Amino acid sequence: MNAVALDRREFLRRSALTAAGAVVAARGESAGAFSLPLLEQGGGDEVVWDKAPCRFCGTGCHVQVGVRDGRVVAIAGDPLAEVNRGLLCVKGYHVGKILYGADRLTTPLLRRGEGHVPISWDEAIDLMAQRIHAAPDRFAMYGSGQWTIGEGCAANKFMKAGLGSNHIDGNPRLCMSSAVTGFLSCYGVDEPAGCYDDLDACNVLIMWGNNPAEMHPVLFSRVIDRRARGEEILLIDIGTRRTRTTDHCQEYLEFRPQTDLAIANGIAHLLVKNGNYDRDFVAKYCNFRQLDPGQPANMFGKPMTFEEYGAALETYTPEYVERLSGVPAEKIRMLGDLFGDRSRRITSLWCMGMNQHTRGTAINCLVHSIHLLSGHFGRPGDAPTSLTGQPSACGTVREVGTLSHLLPGGRLVANEAHRRDCEDLWNVPPGRIKAAPGYHTVLMFEKFCTPSDAGGDIDTLWVQVTNPGQTLPNLHRLFNRKADLEGKFLIVSEVYPTATTRLADLILPSAMWVEKNGMYGNSERRTQHWFKMVEPPGDARDDCWQTIAVAHRLHDLGHEGMKGRDGEFIFTIRDESGAVVPIWQWQRYYDVNVDRHLFEEYRRFTRYKNKDLAPYDEYVRARGLRWPVVEQTDGTWRETRFRFAGFDDPYVTGGAEIQFYHSVTKDDRAQIWFRPYEDPPEMPDAEYPFWLDTGRVLEHWHTGTMTGRIPELHRAMPRAYVELHPDDARDLGVQRGDVVRIESRRGRLDLPVWINGRGSPARGQVFVPFFDETRLINEVTLDANDPFSRQPDYKKCAVRVSRVPPDGETR
Amino acid sequence: MPVSGLVLTISSDARVRESLLGALRARPEVSLGRCEARRLAVATDTTDEESDRALWRWLEAQAGVEHIDLVFVHFDDREVATHERRRTGPS
User: Fold this and answer.
1) Which of A352, A365, A533, A706 is catalytic?
2) Arithmetic mean of pLDDT, A40-67
C-alpha cells in the first residue's frame, strides 16, 4: 500500500470517527449546545461533503454526502439535523448506492414490437408533444411524493395552468390522502399540528396500525433512546399483526381488521360516560359533527350537539367493542383512562394502517377526535400525528397540490376564487384552470386501461418518479390490461427498469436525488433543500427539464395554453440582464437555478392557508424549516413547531391558548366527529377464509427499485414471502420455506412461507410485503377505496391459501 | 475495503465497561473516539465485506455492548447488485 493510499485510509477512518463523535455529542448530555461543521474537507482524499435529505421515506433525515471524482463515495448521518441527530437507518446509510445500479437507464427508449430501441431526446420530446397536442384532454400525468418541490411545481403548472387539465394525480393518493381528508375534516387545513418534538415530550405513545421500528426507525429510536436514558414512556401498539415495534411495547392490543373505528369510538364513549373528557377544551375550541345521510358525499357533514354525540356513542361500550374487535374490554377501559388523564402527554402515530383503509377518512377523524375530546392537543407531547411514506408526499403533493382536485397552497380546483387566485399568481388568462377535478389515481388508470371506444378517455399517460405497475391495487384490472389495448401510449420517466417500464411505449432516463437540485417536504412540515452534487449517467436528465421541454415543444406547436397573459412561454426565466434563458434546451438548463425560480414562484401561493415558506436561500443554509416560516422584525425567519398553539404559532391571535384559524365552521373551532363502525367491503368467507395484509419491510423502500440495487439490502431481504400464523401453517401442512398459493377473486401469487419471522400475523391472517418486483402481491389486492379520499385499502381483503406441492407434483 | 463509523451504547457498569474497552483496543481494525455518557464513537476498517460482517458480529457479542448505531459508511468498492429482472409481460 503506498503513502497516498495510507493517507486516504487514515482520512476515511478519521472521517468515520468524526461522524460517530458528532453523533455522540449530539445525543449525549451536552445535546443542544454544540455546533459542528460538515465533515472535514480534503485530507488528501479530495472528498467533498455536502448535505441532502435522504432519498427514501417521509421522515426527512439529513445525510452528509461525500463526493470524490464526480462520484458519491460516502454517506454519514448529519449531526446538525434535528430530525435524525446524526443517525440513519440501514437504508439511509446505503442511500448513495442507489445511483450506481448496473442497469441505470441512460438513453430514451421507444417501443418497437416486443422490445425498445434507443431514440434521441429530441425525437422523444417531439413525439410526446405531438401526441399531447393532438388530444390534450385525453392526456394525464401521474407522479408521486418522490417528485421534488420544483418538479411538482412544474408538472402542476404544465397541466392545470398550461393544458387546462386537472388529470394529474400521484402515488400519495395510495398512501396519504385519507390523512389529508382527516385533517381537512377536523381542522379545515391539511397536515399535522405537532411535529417530531412531540416524540421527545410524550409519556404515552400510541401506534395505530403503525410499525415505526421498521418503517420510520430513526424516529422510533428517539423514543427508545429516551427509555434507555431511564425516562418512563408507555408504548402501546394497536395493530392487527405483531411487528418489531410490538417487541418494544408494554401493551399490544390486537384487533380484527377494520375495527379500529370501534376502538376509537369505545374510547370516546368512555370519556363521555365517565365525564373525564376535557370540558374546558371542548367548550372553548370544539364543535361536534357527523355525516349527513341526506348528503352522503359531503365530507364536511352536518353539526350535532354534544348530547347527540354522546347518544351516538352509547352503543360502543367496552364489551361491545370487545365483541367487534377482539380487544379485551379492560384494555379499552385502560385506553379510556389514559385519555381521561390530563397529566399524561399522549402522542398518536399512524401511517398506512389508518390511511390505506376504505374508512380511512373516518378513522383519521376519530383519532383526531379523541385527542380533541380529551384535550390531548396543543401541548408538546400531546398530538395526533400522521407519518408519511414518501420523502415529499407533504412538500410536493399536499402542499404544491399535485393531486387532481388540488391547487397550490391548500386551494381547490372546484373553488372559483381559488382558481382566479392561482391564475393571477401563475399569470395565465382567467378561465384557464378547469373547475372539475381530474381523475383520481384509481379512476385515471381505470380509464387508461379501458378501450378508447368504450369510455377509456385517457389515451396518453406520463408517469414520473413512481412505479404504478407495482403499487396499484388489483393490477390485472388497473395496469396489466394496458398490454392488450390498441391506441394507449404509456410514457415513463425512470432511473431503472421497473414493473411499470415493462409496459411503457416510451421510456425517458431520469436524473435522481443528488444528480439534480431539489427540495423535499417531510412529515413534520419541514421543507428541505439540496444542491446537485454529481452528474447523471449517460443521457439521463432531470424530470423537471423533461416537463419544461415538452411544454416548450407544445408552445412551438402553437398550443395557446403554453403562453401566459403576457404572451410569453409559461416557464420563461430571465437571467440577471433580463435575457430569456432557454431552459428547455438541456445544455442551457443549469445556466440558471430553475429550482430557485420555481420555488420562489410557488412561495407566493403558500400564505393563503398560513403555510408560509421562507426565501430559497434560507433553506440552503438550514437543515430544513417547518412551516409556517415567518419573517421576524430583525429580518430572520422563524419556523413553527406547534400549529394552532398560542405559545408557538404566530398566526394565533389575541393571546388565545388555542385557535383553529382555518376552522371548517369559521369559528376558530375544530370538529369532533362521530363516525360509526361499518364492515369492510370484502371479508373472509368460506371460499376465501383468510385476511390479506400487505406492507413494507425494514430493508426495502417502496417498490424496491432503489433498495433492491443496493447489494447489502438485497442480500438481507432478497425476495418477498408470506407470514403465516403457526396454527394456520399446521392446518395447511406447511413449514417454513414451503411454497403456498395466495389467491383472491382478482389474482394469485405463489410465495415461500415464513413462520414467526419478521412479523407474526393473527390466526386467519397472512402478510405479504410488496417490495418484490418478481412477486407482485398487488395482482391479488382489492381496489375498493375510501369514498372521500379515494385511497384504496391494501391492508385487508379476502384470500385463500393452499400448499403448492414441491417438484412439480400434481396439485 | 469498508470503513464505518459506529456509535456503541455501552454498559454503565464500570468493570464491564473497562473490560470492553480493553477488548476493543486490542483489535487493530477498531479505532476509538469520543465517549460521552454511555455512548462511544468507533471507526472500523476492514479488508472486505466478509471481515466487516464478522467484526460486526463480534461487536454485537461483546459483554457491555447494548446497542450499535451505524452512522457513517464508505463504499468505494463499486459493488453493484445483479438485479433479477421481472418477467417481461403481464401474467
Assistant:
1) A352
2) 83
